[in-house]
Amino acid sequence: MFDTMVDEMIGTAAASQMRGIPSGLDEMEPGPFLAIVLSGIDPDTLSGFDRITVIRARTRLVSHYAAELYGDMAGLVDSFRHEEGCDRQSAAEGAAYELRAALRLTRRAADVELSFALDLRDRLPRVLDALSKGLIDQRRARTIVWQTTHLDDEEARAVVDRIIDQAPSLTTGQLMARIRKLCTEVDPGAALQRYRESIADRRVIMDPTEAGTANLMGFDLPPHKVSAARHRINELAKTLRGPGEARTMDQLRADVYLDLLCGEHNAGRGGVVDIRVDLNTLVELNDHPGDLAGYGPIVSDITRNVVDDNHDAEWRYTITNNGKPVAVGTTRRRPNRGQKRLIEAAHPTCVFPGCRIPATQCDLDHTTAWADGGPTDTENLAPLCRHDHRLKHEAGWTYKILPNGDTEWTSPLDHTYTTRGRSP
Asked: Hey, which bits of 200-284 come out as E strands?
């Protein structure tokens, strides 16, 4: 029976090689059959469109076998317990030593890999299942596991239950931000305590490099102050650009950074604070996390403190109804164009798939070009960061805003990718 099944697989693979790729390859579940089908495909005969389909299929297969590998690693601990008659900790130590020797790993790497395998199998089985089915890859699996290590098992599983269905469509950066927000919602009090403990450990470190330069790094700093500082550095660096200026923007930012710390640069205007928070949280009726543009979720108490402390910054507000922006504006300074603020509220980040550049730092692009009759209104404008704006105009990418607020992009290879609409 097994031989017959293998013959059928090989026949399918041979047939697929003659046809390019078989229909339904994008939907095939990962496993031995998919492996044989892929082995029969001649990559030199594929179009660019079909190569993307094959790449996705191979990625699912890699994820599937990674899940099998981590299952084997976790099973090695069981083998030590049964065969050596030792407790779980001793069995894990023995398994790590064995993996270290068998796979030529460092002691640290063996410990990390085995710990990850045990977390997948014993602590977050839904993540292991998604990895085995090829729905997520190892990068996303590690993000979920590592971002929930501070939670107890029950809380971590509750977070996974809320995020796992979204995980395949999110980048690791987006996934990390969503998990941080969910972790805060699970236990706001514990999240505030973690924040306070981390802030108490804030520090600045100088790290010499082998090239004779040095790195100056601040750790565990208040995110709203870091965001405002970054914005100020960017704005001051932009003022230095001009004819005869040979420095890159990165070099200008670095020079401004040091000049400010050394007191050698004139003070500019205050920073821009762009935090999205529901009114009930602001008046302490609930404890939903806020969202700091360019950073991500921050705990509710810190959100309220930021509002109280930053009287001199430009504040941007959004009023929503059922998650959709209905009014926007700024306080203290003259507001930006109403259209621009409404678009930034509806699309908080660049609308290219996976991009997290805040809309406030993006260009406003006409979906249908103004020269082609596209109107300058909120239905035909969307934020694109400078890099992705150039991608649209120079690399053949196109997009359209769907009725539900999602953005559908079409690549030069004719694949489509959707950026989900995200309410403020």
From this structure: 203-208, 214-219, 272-273, 275-276
d(CA 304, CA 277): 9
Burial class (CB in 10 A: 0-12, 13-18, 19+), 205: exposed
- Asked if residues 342 and 381 have their Cβ atoms less than 8 Å apart, the reply is no
Tell me the C-alpha distance between 386 and 335, whole Å: 23
Dist. CA 358–CA 405, nearest whole Å: 17
Residue 250 CA neighbour count, 13 Å, CB half: 0
Strands (E), 156-289: 203-208, 214-219, 272-273, 275-276
pLDDT digits (tens, 9 = 90+) for 105-160: 899 999 999 999 999 999 999 999 999 999 999 999 999 999 999 999 999 999 99
Rounded to whole angstroms, the maximal C-alpha distance in the chain is 80
The rounded distance, in Å, linking the Cα atoms of 344 and 338 is: 10
End-to-end CA distance of the chain: 57
- Is the pTM here over 0.70, yes or no? no
What is the token pair recorded at 193? 């305590």
The amino acid at residue 108 is R
